[in-house]
Amino acid sequence: MARDKNVYNVDDFDQIMDDLRPFWGIDPFEIRNLAGHMSSEEHGGVSGLHIRNKKVWRLTNQNWRVEIMAKMVQPFVKYLPDMDIAMNRLDQPRVVVPWDDMQKLLESERATRHVAPDAAAEWTTNMEGLLKDNDTAPVVIDPEWFSKHGQQYMLIAKEGCPPDSHARDPNSNLSSSEALYKHPQGGFVSNFNRSSDLCTVGPEVQGKHGFLFAPSTIIASKRLLPIFGECKVNVNNDILFPANMYYADDVRYRYDSKYDYDWDDKNDTMIWRGVTSGGTNTAENWRDMHRQRLVLTSNGTEMVGKEVLIMTEDPNNQGSYVNFKHYQPSEFALDHTDVGFTEAFACVPDCGFYDGVWTYKNMTTLSQQFESKFVVDVDGHSFSGRWHAFLESKSLGIKSTIFREWHDSRLFAWRHFIPMDNRYDDLYSILTYFIGIGKRAKASDQPYMPRHDFEGRKLGRQGREWAKKVLRKEDIEGNATAYLASLERSDMFSPYVSDEGTNNKRGEKGKKADEDRDNAARPKSPEARALKAAIDGLKGLHGKLYGDLAFGKREVAWGNLNADHLDEIFVLFRKILIPLVGLTTIIDIFERVAEKRGWVKPSDDQHVEGGEKLRQTKEEEKRVWNEMMKCLHEPFAIVMAAMDEGIEHAALLLGIISPPKKKEDVESNGTRPKPGDPEFSQHLRHRMKEFYGTRGAAVKIWARDRGLDQDHFDTIRESPVSVSTKDDNIQRSEDQQQLFLILYMEFLLYSVGMAIFEMVEYAEKKVADGTMKKNRLILPGQRRIPPDSMESGSPNVYMGSGFGPRKDPEHLPAQSPWQHFGNGLRKVPKFLGSTESSFGFRVACATLTVGIVAFLKNSQRFFIEQRLVWAMIIIAIGMNVTSGSSMFGFFGRILGTALSIIMSYLSLLGYATQSWSSKNDHPSDEPINPAARRAWLNDLTSLIDRAAPTSHSVTSTLILLSHSVTQGSPLPPYFESPKTFDLSKSLEALDSGILDARHVEEPGYSAYAVCQIATSLINDDLQKLIEAVRDLVGETDFSWKVTDSEETLTGGGKGKND
């Protein structure tokens, strides 16, 4: 799902993993109980989201936050187990576990946390502690809430700090605290995490931030509770998740690029608007609250006569800076700041004490704020919901906060934004650095700071580009590149898991069948699921194009491309699709390897004889693949990026997409050809050539791991070199599987690239011959075979009997008039039994279920008053031909899916065999021994001709299975799949050294690997299809067995297996 939505950070989970660590030290029942029942208390400030059977079952103590969270999880709730989520519905964080208690929990986590190597990849069901419906006597654990409204929060917070921290050390002072997070020059924040760490800055800001000394609501607990929150301070132990404000489509916080301005068109000002939130405002405390201090600090009148620290250029050393401690910013503030309140809020007893204090400013939309180059963001009651919009804008964000959010690990100070101290004593150092002040002079008592507009523009751009990658709604919800990259670190042999729950009332055989079907449908890895979903989308697009193409060619249009061009483009698209579909089979291959070697089903393998060896073998295989995929990562990434650009280039030339607006960028000086440039095709060809040249790298790593010499791949030797260093045939077969799969991936990816290159050449050819130069009237193309074109001398087409009407064995062709009359009579029941008649009968029955009310005396009045005639109309309109016949369609779709998989492998085989029949298949110019290549290809070609991958036996088997399903007839007894043609053994019989390492870099070797793997996949799928059909329709069984009554009572079985 993540890759399907182009999520950039697919493996950044540091924040939530840190949040969850201490929960390993708590009994699981306690966690489930607290999560399920904390929301039961109406005034506890907790809402509950409860998931059952892959759906959101219930929301408890409901409010807008949990409603948005329910929408947030909807796209992936089908992957979640039964669970209860407790969610903080207050603005302020909730949990502060004392330092010593937290260390005990973490020590327990370190000592006990582990995942068993044979852990099952499935969810546990019916767990104790979850919220239950109509539970008359629930066991509820006390969350131990306590209230501290309006009290000093640092009294609670410092208990979560280490004993030697600034917050708990009475001998610590301001200088020692600042040394941990501030730079001595200009007072700039050098460590943003420390600047918001209450254990470091708490004593200095406890009287300068409204949340710390005048919180409006504090309901907290010192017990570790599984509660999700949108923000927290560093000592809190709430579990962070993406704030609902970022996910909700609130116009107040939504960025719209069309209302933004380019950097050079913005004003040299810093802007902020807001209300007086952030704590409980009173006449005595308002001047110390954080938002009020920002407004006062930025006010030119308020700053008259006051001095602040900034930096100035050293007059004796141009380009270096020193501190200037006596700068009076009043005039600068008037010219370059626009900060103010729009209204008073959260005052006790009322806001009358603000009368005459503020000149309230008009409310300003986000779009109007983007007229300024600098947008500052500070806390309110908790975090600020406008921060994402600021980062997405073309302005530069300045951030001051004590709160932590889910995205903090993704954003970096001084690269994506400017950090500011919560005391705001560095505000004018920041602004004067970027805007500049004064004039350079050899001797002057006035500060001079040159303008750093370029640096400000660059920082703003970096923040904007990064926000577009990692802070989208799709990232909050959170394809081939991701899957291939995941093979560098993941367990590619992990078993597949089911999305559906298991019905405990069904028999073991039924449950097994369901599990097998589900396991075959959904891989465990999210990258694998994303890859399959992406390719499924492409296959769906191919089917839609195929169906719509005929209609498109009949249209009259004004454009460049005619009907023949559309046909040619479709053929090129299909050439790209076939090897892409082949790439998805990598997932199936890993699964089948795991099945055949006994790695799929987790069990107590290490406790039985040979079990530990199985586990070690799997780990070794996984290690080998991780190492090889790390080697392939860079060339795969390069070639896939080039292929993306190749498709874009072809689409631009063919007018399928519009060219982007050209815009001068002073920060971009690249010379690499871009899509649409005349030289791009040569650039793409060069990239594909580079990839082709590196095709042996992964094989050499594999060989090194197997103890083979490097020279086996760099030279062609006369004597055959064995791929395997062991005499064991099983080990040799397993090694050969690894080698073939490496070549399989490389060959298919290269084939995709060459197919894209072919489309690029076609597009450039259309531009060169003037097709794309100007629009013209496009008339419908002529039919390929007009009805009147079958003249004398034209070839005759004879269709097999399979294309004719189905014969009826119970009724021979009519010979006499009476038999013809009987055929006429049989049309009546045939018509009544047709699909249309059956549909009409179902509609009549469904309508009558409501209409019967009108024909009964006692209910006729009710029918009229309630206007049930409309219900009858809706039923008649709403039904379709498939209503009531869904089961047949369900089994038909199962069979169709299996058949399509097999046909895709057959297509892949046909595609691979083109490798040695195409004259210009490879762009490589490297010298290879012609005689050796010719002998090798001759043996391979002769064998492929005999292999007959699309054999009659496979076709006959598929037809027989199809007939059994459609007719519901059992399969013949002892029905087996056709024998596989073993390519490897047959090749080695022709030439014992034909599959040796010295041939690996032959152009046809990779194509052979594709043939070998695809043939194996066809056989495996055919066998699984036979088993599925056998479970569905049964198998003819004439065996019998006589047992006595005692054996019958004890469950003695019977059948052919006996």
The profile of the biggest β sheet is: 5 strands, mixed
Tally the helices: what do you get? 36
Strand content: 5-15%
- Oligomerization category of the chains in this entry: single chain
Helix content: 40-55%
Structure, described:
By secondary structure, the protein is an alpha/beta fold. Among the domains are: 248-472, no CATH class; 526-599 and 624-657 and 675-715 and 733-778, no CATH class; 903-917 and 943-1033. The protein is built from 36 helices and 16 strands. Residues 475-493, 495-523, 602-608, 663-670, 712-727, 784-794, 915-928 and 1047-1058 have low confidence and may be disordered. Strand 9 and strand 10 (321-327) form a beta hairpin. The strands form 5 sheets. It has a 5-stranded mixed β-sheet, sandwiched between helices.
Kindly list the characteristics that best describe this protein.
single chain; 1058 residues; alpha/beta; five-stranded mixed sheet; 36 helices; 16 strands; disordered C terminus
